[in-house]
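Data availability (excerpt). The following record was deposited with the supplementary files.
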Amino acid sequence: MTVQNLMLYEDKYYINVNEENDTIFYFFDYDTRSADINMVFPHFHTFFEICIPLCPEAVHFIEGIPYEIRAFDIVGISPNRLHKTQYPAGKPCRRLIIQFNIPSTVAGLSDEYGQLLSMFDVEIPIFRFDPELQKHLCGKLNDIYRLAPKKDPMRNLIIHQKFVEFLILLFLNRENNIYSNQSELTEMEKKVYAVAGFIHAHYPEDLSLESLAREFCISPSYLSHRFKQVTGFSVTDYIQMTRIRNVQALLVNTSIPITEAAEPCGFNCFSQFNRVFRKHIGMSPSLYRKQNQLPHPAQWTL
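Predicted structure:
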């Protein structure tokens, strides 16, 4: 089927090239999501991710801030950036998720690949274009959709080539991005999400309910009640989970000793860190690293 005469789509249609730890990796996931399976807390990946909703509306959270998205918006998330998508109640929403790795440098080129990937490092990596450009971008992805099931010896190379063409088209038209966040929030919700965004930006610092209440000039009791009401988490749990997610990124991506991973993420007491990690993740930091660390983690440098 074709969604709005733009994108080829079939539920549970998957396209895979290599594994997520490989230098070049692709996973195209055509599927639906609904409100009853919304993510509870933001998560991260060690690879890049693109989310293209095919439903009228949804909300994407990036580092605690909500952004309204609609059909054919392109949300680009760089590795280790905390994010989640929240879908509305009612009919399940179609969407395309593209998870990928490509090298940032390639012999014989200067920094072209790095420039393509830098599009996702901006504060709001969400792209919205006019219908004609949407058609061209979807056309690149539709080429991949058609090719994927074929027994072609050049299949993986052509998928890579077509996806790079998609990124180049996105990059060359980034100045034509017309996205603006129209998320409809009450003043109370805006305040709560401002606090959440502050936590994501300042998690290594000494944060508490009281210090955040002072920062935003509201009473601790009001903040505590409203924060729980909007996010589903207490302020303390939200701070702890944000810190833990960033520790997880260190454990997966670097060879930093576990005893040194806690402090850069806001934990001043190692025994408390161990306790909080087990509480939220359900296993010890060492077991988590053993199960999830990349084959060639980066060397940690201060």
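Summary of structural features: The mean pLDDT is 93.
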